[in-house]
Write a structure and sequence with these properties.
Elements (H helix, E strand, L loop, with lengths): L3 H13 L4 E6 L4 H13 L12 H4 L11 E8 L15 E4 L7 H18 L4 E5 L6 H7 L4 E2 L5 E2 L7 E8 L19 H5 L5 E3 L2 E2 L5 H4 L11 H4 L2 E3 L3 H4 L2 H5 L17 E3 H6 L2 H8 L10 H14 L9 H10 L4 H13 L68
Parallel strand pairs: 3-10
Antiparallel strand pairs: 1-2, 2-7, 3-11, 4-7, 5-6, 8-9
Helix pairs in contact: 1-4, 13-15, 14-15
């Protein structure tokens, strides 16, 4: 075993290279996390996602990625959670991008981790960087390394800093000592994330049902679930709600809107009509680092049609760009996009558009009407017995990616 000086030196390299927090833990398998992943997958809570659920035996055993691994050097990289106000021009509907996906924060994280790996290689050790990767349960690694505790939304929260971070690790055969014990729970009796989830996806403390999680549903294949379309609101990619209501995030001062107002990053807001007008190459060029099922831009258009239905109410009259795009998608050869356009038109009060020239209504989904009551929020399911905080891969935020605790790539979500 190397001494504590070597561990301190390694952590210092990471911090000097842009990481906001660094810790070291053993590379022993995460057996309890494997059990949780397998139980939740069997219970259907994964909602069909793969990522670390695909092969829990692999994603919870660092030696599968680096034979002979002795230690994990875990790093966290913060991203700015202040959110720019919507553009001043309100004549066209805009869609919101979750904070972790506004730009590629994982590139910055990887640079810091690669600096650590280069240092270890220079000392004669083997090192491999894993970030936004199905091969490692990043949150479990961060917890073991003492970076933070599991919040009730299954995110990792760093003491005094909250959860607006992306996470990654360096696997190495260097026998580095652990730098800290796991951090104790800091949530107490608070349940704001459970109550603040727009679809009730956090079904128990630390238990997320991906079948309801908006951050996963925008990445899932097939139709967007009818019962959650209104709840999607103006979100085109990701969802930050369970982080926005979190008191540690608010106390850390990282959850406020950008005081610069409308001058914020244009990548945070997407012109919905322009997205629906763009061709495949344009969409993949702009949004290709997001997780898009099968790399098929039709899913970006599907999500945009839902946002259109939710947010274009004041700009869908005769002769408008919204009306034109609705007319085009109501004639679209892709049945999925056609039925989402039907939903959007009806939600906008433009059922007059949903007719064939001969007067026949287009085929539409069953119950293609607004959901009564709280939009998209079914009754909460009972907690799954024996399912503890998951520690699935992803960022401390949903980064990367994705729904907390379910292994969605992240909130940096670029796979």
């Amino acid at each position: 075993m190397l001494d504590s000086h070597a561990a301190t030196e390694v952590c210092g390299v990471g911090r000097r290279s842009g990481l906001d927090a660094v810790g070291i833990a053993s590379a022993e398998p995460f057996e309890s996390t494997r059990v949780v992943l397998e139980e939740r997958r069997a219970a259907g809570l994964h909602g069909g996602m793969q990522f670390t659920y695909r092969n829990p035996a692999r994603s919870t055993d660092p030696s599968r990625s680096l034979p002979g691994a002795r230690a994990l050097v875990v790093g966290a990289r913060a991203y700015d959670a202040r959110f720019p106000a919507a553009p001043a021009d309100r004549s066209r509907p805009r869609a919101r991008v979750a904070r972790y996906a506004v730009r590629d924060h994982y590139a910055e994280l990887r640079r810091g981790l690669e600096a650590v790996a280069d240092h270890l290689r220079g000392e004669g050790w083997v090192a491999r960087v894993l970030a936004d990767d199905n091969a490692l349960v990043d949150r479990a690694a961060a917890h073991r390394a003492g970076l933070g505790w599991y919040g009730k939304n299954a995110n990792i929260l760093l003491p005094g800093a909250g959860s607006w971070f992306v996470l990654g690790a360096v696997l190495t055969d260097a026998p580095l000592p652990s730098t800290a014990a796991p951090v104790e729970d800091g949530c107490g009796s608070c349940r704001r994330c459970l109550d603040g989830c727009p679809t009730g996806a956090i079904v128990a403390p630390g238990v997320v049902d991906a079948r309801r999680c908006l951050a996963w549903l925008v990445q899932a294949e097939g139709d967007f679930p009818l019962e959650h379309r209104e709840a999607l609101g103006d979100r085109i990619y990701g969802c930050d709600d369970c982080q926005e209501v979190c008191p540690p995030n608010r106390r850390a001062g990282r959850g406020r809107d950008d005081p610069a107002g409308g001058s914020g990053d244009e990548a945070a807001w997407v012109d919905v009509v322009a997205l629906l007008d763009a061709d495949d190459a344009e969409l993949l060029d702009r949004f290709g680092r997001w997780y898009i099922p099968r790399r098929d831009p039709r899913y970006l258009r599907r999500n945009a049609l839902v946002v259109l239905g939710n947010r274009a109410g004041g700009s869908c009259g005769a002769g408008t760009a919204v009306e034109a795009v609705l007319r085009r998608y109501l004639e679209h050869p892709d049945e999925m996009l056609r039925t989402h356009a039907v939903w959007a038109a009806r939600r906008l009060g433009r059922s007059d558009l949903v007719r064939e020239p001969a007067g026949q209504l287009r085929p539409a989904e069953p119950a293609d009407v607004a959901v009564p009551g709280v939009a998209g929020r079914p009754g909460a399911e009972p907690a799954q017995p024996g399912l503890a905080s998951p520690g699935a891969r992803g960022a401390g935020s949903h980064a990367a990616g994705g729904p907390a605790g379910t292994g969605v790539p992240s909130p940096g979500v670029s796979r």
